């Protein structure tokens, strides 16, 4: 898999705004949830923000590792299962949270574990979009989202120097 053509860098500030916007959209849906299942690791940050905004204090994790290196999607491995008490609900009253859905493979695996849950992500690409119930921003399939926890400050060449080749 090669580097996607477009880059969508997200700052901490923007991520906080987008995750809070997701919480607003969820609260406006009229539904309520008694527990969050967040998909680690990317779902941990939006889950913290949503749990604060919606006052949901029961939080569990499920770990599905798919991207073994930077860009290639290897086999899907469930590294940590959902707690049995939550699994017994089949997802009734449960909110699943992740940072994004890309191909939708991670979402499909977790949905199968909790078929009645509501699935929310901050960002969605077209292939994954049908698998989520609520999201905030759609980016094209050929865009790579750079999250703030994966980035640091770095020097950037001036645009003119860059385009002269
Ligand atoms: O829709 P998909 O194509 O399945 O991709 C989306 C998943 O990929 C990333 O997680 P990743 O597996 O890289 O692990 P991480 O959250 O620990 O970074 C992201 O956080 C989503 O969970
Ligand atoms: O666009 C992305 N950005 C970061 N992690 C990801 N995992 C799948 N797609 C992406
Ligand atoms: Mg993830």
Question: What topology does this entry show?
Answer:
Layout: E1 6-9, H1 12-27, E2 35-40, H2 44-54, E3 59-67, E4 73-80, H3 84-87, E5 94-101, H4 105-113, E6 118-124, E7 137-138, E8 143-146, H5 159-163
Parallel strand pairs: 1-8, 2-3, 2-5, 5-6, 6-7
Antiparallel strand pairs: 3-4
Hypoxanthine is lined by residues 67, 100, 102, 144-145, 147.
Description:
It comes from Hoeflea phototrophica (strain DSM 17068 / NCIMB 14078 / DFL-43). Homotetramer. Mg(2+) binds at residue 99. GO terms for molecular function: guanine phosphoribosyltransferase activity; hypoxanthine phosphoribosyltransferase activity; magnesium ion binding; xanthine phosphoribosyltransferase activity. It is a peripheral membrane protein. The protein is of the alpha/beta class and 165 residues long. It has a single domain (6-163), classed as Rossmann fold, CATH 3.40.50. The protein is 27% helix and 29% strand. The chain contains five helices and eight strands; from the N terminus they run βαβαββαβαβββα. The chain has helices at 12-27, 44-54, 84-87, 105-113, 159-163, and strands spanning 6-9, 35-40, 59-67, 73-80, 94-101, 118-124, 137-138, 143-146. The strands form two sheets. A six-stranded mixed sheet has the order 4-3-2-5-6-7, sandwiched between helices. α4 (105-113) links the parallel β5 (94-101) and β6 (118-124). α1 packs across α2. The mean pLDDT is 93. Bound molecules: 1-O-pyrophosphono-5-O-phosphono-alpha-D-ribofuranose, hypoxanthine and magnesium ion. Magnesium ion (MG) is lined by residues 39, 42, 98.
């Amino acid at each position: 898999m090669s580097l996607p053509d477009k880059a969508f860098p997200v700052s901490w500030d923007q991520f906080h705004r987008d995750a809070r916007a997701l919480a607003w959209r969820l609260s406006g849906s009229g539904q309520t949830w008694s527990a969050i299942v967040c998909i680690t690791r990317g779902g941990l940050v939006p889950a913290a923000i949503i749990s604060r905004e919606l006052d949901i204090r029961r939080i569990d994790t499920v770990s599905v590792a798919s991207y073994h290196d930077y860009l290639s999607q290897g086999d899907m491995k469930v590294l940590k299962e959902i707690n049995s008490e939550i699994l017994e609900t089949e997802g009734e009253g449960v909110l699943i949270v992740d940072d994004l859905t890309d191909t939708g493979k991670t979402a499909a695996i977790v949905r199968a574990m909790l078929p009645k849950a509501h699935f929310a992500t901050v960002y969605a690409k077209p292939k994954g979009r049908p698998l989520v119930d609520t999201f905030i921003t759609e980016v094209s399939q050929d865009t790579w989202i750079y999250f703030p926890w994966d980035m640091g400050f770095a020097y950037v060449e001036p645009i003119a120097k860059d385009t002269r080749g």
